[in-house]
Amino acid sequence: MDPAQYTYPSPLASFPSPPALPTGTAADGKSLLNPPSTTLSHAYTSFPPPITNGPRGGFDIHIYHNSASPSQVTFAQELHTRIRLEFPELRIYKFWDKPVGPHTMAMFEVNVFTPAQFGAFVSWLVINRGPLSALVHPNTEDALRDHTQRATWLGEKVMVDTGVFWQMNRREGEGKGVLGEEGGE
Q1: Cα 185 from Cα 178, distance rounded (Å)
Q2: N or C: which end of the chain has fewer CB within 10 A?
Q3: Residues linked to residue 138 through DSSP beta bridges, in sequence order
Q4: What own/partner pairs with CB < 8 Å and gap ≥ 24 does 73-81 have?
Q5: With contact defined as beta carbons under 8 Å apart, do 140 and 56 qualify?
Q6: Closest CA to 80 of 98, 90, 68, 92
Q7: What angle do CA 98, 105, 124 make, to 5 degrees?
Q8: Band (33; pLDDT cuts 50, 70, 90)
Q9: pLDDT exceeds cutoff 70 at 1
Q10: Cβ-count burial of 88 within 10 angstroms (0-12 exposed, 13-18 middle, 19+ buried)?
Q11: How far apart are the C-alpha atoms of 132 and 154, rounded to whole Å?
Q12: What's the 3-state SS for the chain?
């Protein structure tokens, strides 16, 4: 999606009269000095609006594999198992052997619920995803934007069938999600 389709509030909107920042450099000679910290940002403990902080999970991570490549299927299955063992507190969905919903490749999905889980899991996945690609997207009220303009990719970008989101809007009116299951997505 074209970022010009959206409007963006100023990043300084919550700092209407920001203090002057130090201009010097830190001991490493490269990074800037920051003002002393008195409190941590709320972003350490909850996702910023409009990202959900509820049972839906703040972020989905879709991990894709080429179902026609036996070595990728094996690696993806082993990664799926490892994630279930390493991160049992996360919501981990079934291993799909074919495209499903807006996803044009076989994949599995992991949901994270807190910024701490996000930081731990995504940094772990950067190192352990092997040849696989992953779509990392927030969950807000705008699924199309979440899967496009707000999406972040680990590895190669995989096409997402954005037309499915129009179907999702129609199905939500019928009480069904993307996969056509009651309440499913």
Answers
A1: 5
A2: N
A3: 59
A4: 73/97, 73/106, 75/130, 75/131, 75/132, 76/106, 76/108, 76/132, 79/128, 79/129, 79/130, 79/132, 80/108
A5: no
A6: 92
A7: 110
A8: very high
A9: no
A10: exposed
A11: 8
A12: CCHHHCCCCCCCCCCCCCCCCCCCECCCCCCECCCCCCCCCHHHCCCCCCCCCCCCCCEEEEEEECCCCHHHHHHHHHHHHHHHHHCCCCEECCCCCCCECCECCEEEEEEECCHHHHHHHHHHHHHHCCCCEEEEEECCCCHHHHHCCCCEEECCCCCECCHHHHHHHHHHCCCECCCCCECCC
Do the Cβ atoms of 130 and 108 come closer than 8 Å?
no
pLDDT, tens digit, 9 for 90 and up, residues 120-130 = 999 999 999 99
Write out the two tokens for 40. Answer: 């941590």
How many Cβ atoms are within 10 Å of 53's Cβ, its own excluded?
16
Amino acid letter for position 55: P
What are 27's two structure tokens? Answer: 């001991």
Residues in the chain: 185
Are 94 and 108 a contacting pair, CB within 8 Å?
A: yes
Give the whole-angstrom CA distance, residue 44 versus residue 178: 31
Rg (CA), the chain: 19
pTM listed for this prediction = 0.85
54-58 average pLDDT score: 96
Residue 167 main-chain phi, psi, to 5 deg: -65, -40
